[in-house]
Design goal:
heterodimer, A: alpha+beta, three-stranded antiparallel β-sheet, two-stranded antiparallel sheet, elongated, B: six-stranded mixed β-sheet, five-stranded parallel β-sheet, 24 helices, about 20% helix
Chain lengths: ~190, ~900
């Protein structure tokens, strides 16, 4: 198409496209015309739930090349009927934020900077520390001899942003370990 | 809410904090419902409501109590509902003394411990001394061996924290009643006397609300309650975060019961919670005091044996479904310890650790400061910014040996050791901090599958969309692996204390990436039959659970979510293709019921109260309850049924006992036990207040939990010397564009651009009084810290005239924190807040504080500490300030059993 085709004169375009005020398709750029929404080119759409407040709005997660390319409200949800608030609408950035930390970091005692640590080593170090803290903080019985069978050596905070299945494993494991100082955002 | 005829939003800014949920308020309004917003600030919720009523933060019980008083004195209560479904007619122990009799204390207060002995609050029983009333006795006398009062025994300490799914236990359900409601010892008459002084004049004096606004409010809710109409209340942390927060909700519950608005469409009290699965993390609790399904954690000395434990949860003779707590507990223990849980070892009950009091996040905080805690896991929570008294939070972390932060971003709780406010002030030096810090990146909500439970108890499954990047992992995978490593290291241990870990059922199928199958975990939570022909089959309902070890189930209230092996949380029939209650989208506990106690939507004979408010009713032909929801009642229990008086549990329910989780089947206008700071809500001023309590000499909730420490000083309140040093009230809140302490919002460029900077909202009057420039800087000083904020001068803040003087309130969003990694950072409002807790649920008093505000930025370095100290000295604030339990020294009024209850309670103030 020639850049100077008379058929592309704005007035003709306005008449031809029915956009008489020249605010719609008649004045879109070629670049805009060549653009299609990410939602139409996604490989798949996955149903999810917004991770922010407790309303529980439905989300549709659009995935292309194993990357999340967009997150939209789910019109099927009887709770949200397709709507999302600014946070829910921004949640694609929660996944793809440029500053998101995706590597394990370790700060040694008195160190002034982080250092890298591989995940496997880190989990092993945490397991060792849990067992040591558990041992050091162990209480078999109270002063009247009543059983306590617990440790005050370590504590945990958080859970309201996590899944039920995750909270279940946390409570199960820590309770079996004798830890009682387990808390989350519901307290505050 | 869409079915309500009137909606009162109080203690919540719903349109901004739950904007998508607010569409249902808008729907109701479009159909003609009246919407009223009661809040210290004029917000977007106020803007779209029919009316905004400004209120002084911390005075809500006076307003709600005055509504109760008006409803009672003008006979506007829903008589048939109240008589049939509440405990209005029940008689209370004659030794009970009200706060109105004892100048702000109920009977049984121990000034040493700050705790009540609740025995005098109990229901009366038919014994000597109880015979003088006029009413009928519709129950036989208690066993001679029984305690003197129904429900007087059992746990007192910490019990109030555990009643997440029903009322306190009782020995049985045979109470004395006076159906005429005239006996002065009836709950109804006690209620009337208790709220008699809560008048429109008192509302004006204490809350700063004009009589015409009160009249509008009372007219709106009473004209929209009854057979044909319903009123709904909605609240959020504006009601809970007070030193008597649980009593705020109780006051609303009393009002809604009197108006007949519970268990009915368009009625109720909606808790608008703030995290995606904060309900789920309460149901399956990562909380110190609970086991899954609101079973209590065992307490040493109270629950030493399995028998003691079960007896304390519920009596087999009380009404309703808590009587089956033995089946729920045994099934949980079987889920956790499998074959190692046997009848001989009480299903491994002794594997559970024991509590010795409160071990909440704030008690743990002080233990950290005392070097008693070595390690700390932070799992998607950012206490350096999000918890009250931020300085204490950060200082406590510097006492740890190790800290594990699992989050999406490098939140301030992960970086305080290098860029926190205490590094800037010189209180901490990075090179001196011994704490090891592990940052383990987490998976987002789309990088794992699992369920969230939203604010109306609805479980919704999320399908995994993509794999987590890099070393990001779900908590499911991390904790499964951590458990495996721990068990490997202990594999050869002969130590008896390691048995609970080694015997733990910890075997979940994993995928190629090592991620455990979350559906396998959900199936364990749901429970299954373990023996007999059905062995292995998922349970369909918690009523299938047994106490003989033949069933397992990790959270009894969730049983049914995996009935028939189908993941019902993943049900996704589009809303437009089903009825309004949308039963085929997700799954709500219990039993997929959408409105709790919905038996109350029908009259005692089982007929809908009105055609307009029809919801669940008795169908004579089918001989069962039917309707638009799963009936929250035994399906075939006919309305007129009278139970065998010796029966217990579900069999003891009468056909008109809709409150099936309550020990007597009734809605409690008066709580004969279980609420630690009083059987009836009564007004006390917040820990820090510019006004003296207009009702009692007792200024503050005498049962509140105190942290009298130098790093947690309280500002003097009205009438105390130094109160003028911190003359203004501040309150904290959320914005639409951020989430809590910012861990999921301040790292997002979109959201950071929308709300880039910490600010305060002040009225033009306060700006003029203090010389604050619009959009300039101001420094706000409390006895804990000083922060700097941008100034937003707005008429949305209204100065209120309270008890003769003007109270200025300052609004502060709490999303920002000081650190080096977020897109936007700023001073944290939580640094200003102190720690004083509500006694039932141990929540902090963070919606009201006292402060001073001045123009300009805050000092840097050690001079910041000097500024805070200078204010403290000028105010004379010491660790004693605000921390006495009883406000008239030397008087222990609660110990006087001879106080005459007929004494005129109208005090002069």
């Amino acid at each position: 198409m020639s850049r100077f085709s008379p058929l592309e004169w704005p007035v003709l375009r306005q008449i031809r496209s029915g956009d008489l005020l020249g605010r719609g398709p008649a004045v879109t750029s070629e670049r805009t015309r060549a653009t299609s929404p990410r939602t139409t080119t996604a490989d798949r759409v996955v149903q999810s739930v917004c991770p922010y407040c407790a309303v529980g709005c439905g989300q549709r997660v659009y995935v292309k090349d194993e990357k999340v390319v967009q997150i939209e409200g789910d019109p099927d949800s009887p709770i949200s009927r397709g709507r999302l608030c600014p946070k829910g609408a921004a949640s694609e950035q929660l996944v793809n934020a440029p500053g998101r930390q995706t590597e394990v970091l370790y700060r040694a005692p008195r160190a002034t900077e982080w250092q890298r640590l591989d995940l496997d080593t880190a989990v092993g170090m945490v397991a060792d520390r849990v067992l040591e803290a558990r041992r050091n903080g162990w209480q078999d019985a109270d002063e009247q001899g009543r059983p306590l069978r617990r440790t005050m050596g370590f504590a945990s905070l958080g859970g309201a942003t996590l899944d039920n299945e995750e909270n279940y494993l946390i409570k199960k494991l820590f309770t079996a370990a004798g830890a009682i100082q387990i808390e989350n955002q519901a307290r505050i | 809410m869409a079915n309500a005829d009137c909606i009162v939003i109080q203690g919540s800014n719903m349109a901004e904090c739950h904007p998508v949920g607010y569409q249902w308020v808008t729907e109701a309004k479009a159909r003609g419902a009246r919407v009223i917003h009661v809040d210290p600030r004029f917000t977007r919720t106020s803007a779209v409501a029919d009316k905004h009523v400004p209120i002084r933060a911390g005075s809500d019980i006076v307003l709600l109590g005055a509504l109760i008083n008006h409803v009672l004195t003008h006979d506007l209560w829903f008589e048939e509902y109240v008589r049939a479904y509440t405990n209005a007619a029940t008689l209370v122990n004659e030794d009970y003394r009200d706060a109105e009799d004892l100048d702000g204390l109920f009977s049984g207060f121990d000034p040493e411990t700050g705790q009540y002995d609740m025995s005098t609050w109990a229901y009366a029983e038919n014994e000597d001394g109880a015979g003088g009333h006029d009413g009928k006795v519709d129950a036989p006398a208690g066993d001679p061996d029984d305690g003197a009062e129904a429900g007087a025994e059992a746990v007192e300490e910490a019990a109030g924290q555990q009643l997440g799914s029903g009322g306190a236990p009782m020995e049985h359900a045979r109470m004395l009643h006076d159906e005429t409601l005239q006996d002065p010892r009836t709950v109804f008459q006690i209620l009337k006397r208790h709220y008699a002084r809560y008048t429109p004049e008192m509302v004006q004096e204490v809350c700063g609300i004009a009589p015409e606004d009160f009249a509008y409010l009372v007219r709106s809710i009473t004209e929209n309650s009854g057979r044909e109409r319903t009123t709904c209340f909605a609240y959020a942390v504006g009601w809970t975060q007070h030193s008597l927060g649980a009593q705020y909700i109780r006051t609303a519950s009393i009002l809604q019961l009197l108006l007949g608005n519970m268990g009915r469409p368009g009625g109720g009290i909606m808790a608008l919670r703030g995290h995606a699965s904060i309900q789920g993390s309460t149901d399956i609790p990562t909380l110190f005091n609970l086991l899954p399904g609101y079973l209590p954690m065992p307490v040493a000395g109270t629950h030493d044996t399995f028998e003691d434990y079960l007896a304390a949860i519920a009596s087999k003779k009380q009404k309703g479904y808590w009587a089956e707590a033995d089946a729920y507990t045994t099934s949980l223990l079987k889920a956790w310890w499998g074959d190692a849980a046997t009848a001989d070892n009480d299903w491994a009950y002794d594997y559970l650790p024991r509590l010795t009091g409160a071990h909440g996040t704030f008690q743990t905080l002080t233990s950290m400061l005392d070097d008693e805690v070595e390690g700390y896991f932070l799992l998607g929570q950012n206490p350096a910014v999000g918890s009250s008294n931020g300085r204490m939070q950060r200082m406590a972390m510097s006492h740890l040996k190790w800290l594990v932060v699992r989050d999406l971003n490098l939140i301030e709780s992960a970086t305080w050791w290098k860029d926190g406010p205490e590094i800037a002030s010189g209180e901490l030096r990075t090179e001196d901090i011994e704490t090891e810090v592990f940052f383990l990146p987490a998976a987002t909500h789309v990088e794992k599958s699992g369920t969230f439970t939203q604010t109306q108890r609805l479980l919704q499954w999320r399908h995994q969309a993509v794999a987590p990047p890099g070393e990001c992992r779900s908590e499911l995978q991390f904790f499964f692996e951590l458990g495996q490593r721990i068990r490997e290291r202990l594999a050869d241990s002969a130590d008896e204390r390691d048995r609970p870990l080694l015997d733990l059922t910890w075997d979940y199928p994993v995928d190629a990436h090592g991620e455990p199958d979350p559906e396998a975990v959900l199936a364990e939570i749901n429970g299954r039959h373990l023996t007999g022909p059905d062995a292995g089959r998922p349970l369909s309902s918690y009523t299938e659970m047994r106490a003989d070890g033949s069933t397992s189930g990790g959270c009894w209230i969730y049983t049914g979510v995996y009935a028939d092996g189908v993941n019902r949380a993943a049900a996704r029939t589009p809303g437009q293709e089903q009825a309004a209650a949308a039963p085929d989208w997700g799954w709500a506990w219990p039993a997929n019921r959408r409105i709790l106690y919905n038996r109350a939507s029908a009259d005692p004979e089982g007929r809908p109260w009105s055609e307009r408010k029809k919801y669940v009713w008795w169908d004579e032909e089918q001989d069962r309850w039917v309707g638009d929801d799963v009936p929250d009642f035994p399906l075939h229990l006919a309305p007129g049924t009278r139970p065998d008086p010796d029966a217990g549990g579900a069999a003891a329910l009468a056909g008109d006992d809709p409150f099936i989780m309550q020990a007597d089947g009734k809605g409690w206008l008066y709580a004969p036990k279980g609420v630690l700071d009083g059987p009836l809500p009564t007004h006390y001023e917040p820990q820090e207040s510019p006004v003296a309590n207009a009702l009692y000499a007792q200024q503050r909730n005498p049962s509140r939990v105190l942290f009298a420490r130098q790093d947690n000083l309280t500002a003097p309140s009205a009438g105390e010397p130094g109160a003028d040093v911190y003359p203004y009230v501040f309150t904290t809140y959320r914005l639409t564009e951020h989430h809590t302490a910012g861990g999921m919002s301040r790292w997002l460029p979109y959201l950071s651009e929308l709300q880039p900077e910490m600010f305060c909202e002040v009225s033009p009057e306060l700006a003029a009084e203090c010389g604050l420039e619009p959009y300039g800087w101001a420094t706000i000083v409390s006895p804990r810290s000083a922060i700097e904020v941008r100034v937003l001068v707005t008429e949305r803040m209204t100065p209120l005239v309270v008890r003769g003087h003007t109270v200025h309130q300052i609004g502060l969003p709490y999303h920002w924190g000081v650190g080096g990694n977020a897109v936007v950072s700023g001073d944290s409002a939580n640094d200003l807040l102190g720690l004083t807790l509500e006694p039932n649920v141990q929540i902090q008093d963070s919606k009201v504080g006292s402060c001073h505000i001045r123009p300009g930025r805050r000092p840097r370095g050690p001079e910041l500490l000097d500024l805070v100290a200078e204010y403290q000295q000028r105010a004379g604030a010491t660790v004693e300030t605000g921390n006495t339990r009883i406000d008239v020294p030397g008087t222990d009024r609660s110990a006087d059993p001879d106080t005459d209850p007929t004494t005129d309670p109208m005090r002069e103030h």
